[in-house]
Design a protein that fits this description.
By secondary structure, the chain is α+β, with helices and mostly antiparallel strands. It is built from 18 helices and 17 strands. The chain has helices at 3-63, 71-84, 86-98, 133-138, 141-149, 177-213, 216-227, 248-283, 316-320, 330-335, 340-343, 349-360, 403-452, 459-486, 498-508, 510-515, 535-551, 604-614; strands at 102-109, 114-117, 131-132, 154-163, 166-176, 287-293, 307-312, 364-370, 376-384, 395-402, 494-497, 518-523, 530-533, 557-566, 569-575, 618-624, 633-641. α1 (3-63) packs antiparallel against α3 (86-98). The protein starts with a helix and ends in a 21-residue tail after the last strand.
């Protein structure tokens, strides 16, 4: 059976059920009203007979008083009075004659004996039990239906006549169930005919309406087929619409399936493109915001209230200030969908410059803005697109660049270039110097042997020979160090938690710091900081920095190690309270063999810089030599990319002995 036919039959069936239910409710209410009308009308007749009985007794007992005061004599007199009262007999007969539902009318005494009745055979007999019509009126539909349409019976309406507060006589009006049924049947037949006609009309209307309402599916299916042109069918080949003669609903269903597959393939491509763009933005230190028009302008540039952010890079948090308790990336995600003035506060220097730039319109290139904290930011605005030559723009690309960060990047590049040059030079120097040193050592040993055979044992020259030997050994160590520094390192990469690395470094230097009266304080986030590095090399780099901090405080002090996450970077900061490094020496501290210590080799910081460079990280330093300043000492900051490969170490490791004094 076609799906279209099933839908028509289903709608028709539902409509028919509704009509039948409503018809049943109508018949129920009609029967209830007919019984209520019969009960009310016959109750009125019973009260009329009771009133006529009272009048007959009041006038008749005066002339036909009881022979004695006994109850039997009283009821005998009452019966005679009622039977002889012509008006009462006429009233009772007219009720039976003209009422459509009444079968008989009787008057019985308190003992249930019939005194007067329209049925002569019932007089003097005990009245039979009859179901009260008022009780039927209060019953349920099934109870009423059973009493009216069941076996023929007589229903009763009673009207008691009291004497001295107790029933004395009772008027009974008998209602025949067949008479009640006969009075109800014409209305029920009319209702059934109307219900049948209504059901037929509604069924036909539902069928026609359902069939008509399905016609737009043809147009919808045609448009969907145009959208899915070139899409593959379920067998994997191009779908041929001209041969599809299936049911319209089924064709729409299949077309929607093909459209869904086509949309999923497009969505997958857009998702991959979006992921690549987000990864590219995450690697930038510049803040990038893309604003799109909330409503298209008509020949004029949009104001700030007409633009909403549709893309915000995480680096924007660096310029606006991110609270310490907010996870990196959350603040930039909240900016999406907001207007310009909701992102940039007008009472800040950056916000004032941004809003003014939007108000002026046009493009801006590298406008310098001085922030409240002293940083200089370059603001650039680029208008995107022209709406059909009207001069309006569909969006604006904003770029924020920290000049200090750019300067640091240039310095890092310069250091990298110098280290690369040193590496190339030392590789050649090490090779060229090593061979002459080996030859000199051999000949020095030969000279030492000849001096030993001299008559005086060569005591005068032996001292100079020992000095030469010592200096040659030192030169050999220097050449070996050059060779080690220039030799390519083999990285054993794996995903580790930086908190574990810091804990290991603290354990290694624990005793040395205690001997030098140095206190270590460590601070780390609750969540793991996972990086893809060679843990031994990173541990060596961090060890060099902490050891430098310890050695810069000969009288003891505090070394503070803190870990945090900035955007997609893990940051380790080592801060000491030492003597500091002079500002003019800061650009040279990462040079090989440069040192400010009397016993230093000048290799540690250069090696540390090289290790971080090999891991795609960065190292910068701040230092203050003024001992009266609360910020005196040096701060070394390591930045390493956060791993996206998944955990490889203990995710919940805590720093060993962190926040404890040595």
């Amino acid at each position: 059976m076609r799906l279209k036919t099933k839908l028509v039959l289903a709608a028709t069936g539902v409509t028919l059920v509704v009509v039948l239910v409503l018809s049943g409710l109508f018949l129920e209410e009609l029967l209830r009203q007919r019984i209520a009308q019969a009960a009310a009308a016959n109750d009125v007749l019973a009260n009329e007979v009771r009133s006529a009985t009272r009048e007959a007794l009041e006038s008749g007992l005066v002339h036909h008083s009881p022979k004695n005061t006994s109850e039997q004599a009283l009821f005998l007199a009452v019966g005679n009075v009622l039977r002889e009262n012509a008006g009462l007999r006429v009233l009772m007969g007219s009720i039976v004659r003209y009422s459509l539902t009444v079968q008989d009318v009787s008057i019985a005494d308190a003992h249930g004996v019939t005194l007067v009745s329209t049925d002569p055979d019932a007089e003097g007999q005990a009245i039979t039990f009859r179901t009260d019509l008022k009780q039927v009126n209060r019953g349920s539909f099934s109870y009423q239906w059973h009493r009216v349409f069941g076996a023929p019976r007589v229903l009763d309406i009673a009207a008691p006549l009291d004497r001295n507060g107790a029933p004395f006589l009772v008027v009974h009006v008998g209602v025949r169930s067949t008479f009640l049924r006969a009075s109800f049947l014409p209305g029920m037949q009319d209702a059934l005919v109307f219900a049948g006609l209504a059901a037929a009309a509604l069924v036909i209307g539902a069928a026609v309406l359902t069939n008509y309402s399905l016609r737009p599916l043809e147009a919808i299916n045609l448009q969907l087929e145009l959208l899915t042109a070139g899409a593959e069918d379920d067998a994997g080949g191009p779908h041929d619409f001209s041969r599809d003669r299936t049911d319209t609903v089924m064709r729409v269903t299949k077309t929607l399936g093909r459209l869904e597959r086509k949309m999923r393939s497009k969505e997958a491509g857009y998702t991959a493109l979006q992921t690549n763009m987000e990864q590219m933005l995450d690697t930038l230190r510049d803040g990038v915001l893309l604003f799109a028009a909330d409503r298209v302008g008509r020949g004029q540039d949009q104001g700030p209230t007409d633009l909403r952010a549709v893309m915000v890079s995480d680096a924007v948090e660096h310029f606006l200030g991110r609270p310490a308790d907010v996870i990196p990336g959350v603040l930039s995600a909240r900016m999406v969908g907001k207007r310009v003035e909701e992102i940039f506060a007008p009472d800040t220097s950056l916000g004032e410059a941004v809003l003014a730039a939007f108000q002026r319109g046009g493009s801006i290139s590298a406008e310098v803005v001085l922030l409240e904290d002293g940083r200089q930011v370059e603001l650039s605005l680029d208008r995107i697109g022209d709406i059909q030559g009207t001069g309006g723009h569909i969006g604006t690309l904003m770029t924020l660049r920290d000049k200090e960060s750019a300067l640091q990047l240039e310095q890092e590049l310069e250091v990298s270039r110098r280290l690369a040059a040193i590496g190339r030079i030392t590789a050649g120097v090490g090779h060229e110097v090593k061979n002459p040193i080996n030859a000199m050592v051999v000949h020095l040993e030969l000279l030492r042997g000849k001096l030993a055979t001299a008559p005086d044992g060569g005591d005068g020259a032996r001292r100079h020979v020992e000095i030469l030997a010592s200096e040659m050994q030192r030169l050999d160590r220097v050449v070996q160090t050059l060779a080690d520094f220039s030799r390519p390192m083999e990285l054993r990469l794996k995903v580790v938690d930086l908190r574990d690395v810091v804990a290991t470094v603290i354990d290694l230097l624990w005793e040395q710091m205690r001997e030098n009266n140095v206190t270590v304080e460590a601070e780390a986030p609750r969540e793991a900081l996972l990086v893809h590095v060679d843990p031994d090399l990173v541990q060596q780099a961090l060890l060099n920095l902490v050891l430098n901090g310890v050695q810069s405080m000969p009288d003891g002090g505090v070394v503070r190690i803190s870990l945090r996450r900035e955007q997609n970077l893990a940051v380790i900061q080592v801060k000491d309270k030492g003597t500091g490094i002079q500002e003019e020496l800061l650009p040279r501290i990462f040079d090989l063999y440069f040192t400010t210590k009397k016993t230093g080799s000048g290799i540690g910081l250069a090696m540390t810089y090289r290790i971080l460079q090999m891991h795609g990280g960065a190292l910068d330093v701040r230092s203050a030599t003024d001992t009266d300043s609360p910020d005196h000492g040096s701060v070394f900051t390591i930045r390493l990319p956060i791993s996206t490969l998944g955990p490889g170490g203990r995710g919940d490791a805590a720093l060993t002995r962190a926040n404890l004094a040595v």
